[in-house]
Amino acid sequence: MADMTTWRFTKGHGTENDFVLVPDLDARLDVDAEMARSLADRRAGIGADGVIRVVPTASATEESVRAMAERAPWFMDYRNADGSVAEMCGNGTRVFAAYLRREGLEGADEFEIATRGGIKGIRIEGEMIATNMGRWRFLDPDRAAADGFDSLVHVDGGDEPWSALSVDLGNPHTVVALPETVVLADVDLTRAPHVKPDPSNGTNVELVRVLGDAHIAMRVHERGVGETRSCGTGVCAAALATSFWAGDAEPTRDWTVDVPGGRLRVRALPGHQVELAGPAALIADGTVDLSAL
């Protein structure tokens, strides 16, 4: 941990998926698991779904991240609220990009950022920020093609497990097509759903309700966090899975996804890539006294 007793921070959110951003432009700070948990604590800390360290890519500890420095000078070093390291966060990329733009660290309308899930392309669309989330894939494409599903999900209070489809967007997702008899708002997500087969590194679980043509509503339980108001990679996974169930083996349409925190757009791109677009807000700046955490 750095020897400083106070750190600067910015609080931001993307469709109410909220983050504490810690600028570390000189790569001097140690935002370890304990520190991330303390900062994200909603009673004793600042409060957030995750913590983002803003650091030069060339200074990342991981060699695989440092290799991205020539294309993407800034690294989104992300931890979940429980302190666990995550590959990336879709909503977090937009908040990260908004911070880089506000601070003058990036000035173009298109640029790239580094994440543990690879380089992500950013495009500014007025009040919206679009992120190329990169390649996606079904974790078990053979079962997906044969059955449309590859796993089962059970929630507390539910009578029967629900069929689900596993989608990889650099982090793992399990998307549930809710039966017509189940009300999305009534599902208990206070505890992590039980997924079978049990993913070795955990998974985010998305519950989906179709609202209309290329329009769905979603709730999500994020691994290492719990239920959140939004999840960018989860929104993409939900749209891609629902498009697949609708008969689009190669998605081409834009999808509108409503989450408790707002509305996002998902666009399939060539080469099995996908783009997420939505708002980002930086709502507060301050300093935190580390000795009080």
From TrEMBL:
HAMAP family: DAP_epimerase. Substrate binds at N17, N80, G90, N91, N171, N204, E222, R223, G232, T233. This is Diaminopimelate epimerase. Belongs to the diaminopimelate epimerase family. InterPro entries: DAP_epimerase_AS, DAP_epimerase_DapF. It is found in: Cytoplasm. It holds the Pfam family DAP_epimerase. It catalyses: (2S,6S)-2,6-diaminopimelate = meso-2,6-diaminopimelate. Its EC number is 5.1.1.7. The active site is at C89, C231. One of its GO terms (cellular component) is cytosol. GO terms for biological process: lysine biosynthetic process via diaminopimelate. The lineage of its organism: Bacteria, Bacillati, Actinomycetota, Actinomycetes, Micrococcales. Homodimer. Pathway: Amino-acid biosynthesis; L-lysine biosynthesis via DAP pathway; DL-2,6-diaminopimelate from LL-2,6-diaminopimelate: step 1/1. The record marks H173, E222 as: Could be important to modulate the pK values of the two catalytic cysteine residues. One of its GO terms (molecular function) is diaminopimelate epimerase activity. Coiled coil: none annotated. Keywords: Amino-acid biosynthesis, Cytoplasm, Isomerase, Lysine biosynthesis. It comes from the Bacteria. PANTHER family: DIAMINOPIMELATE EPIMERASE, DIAMINOPIMELATE EPIMERASE, CHLOROPLASTIC. SUPFAM superfamilies: Diaminopimelate epimerase-like (SSF54506).
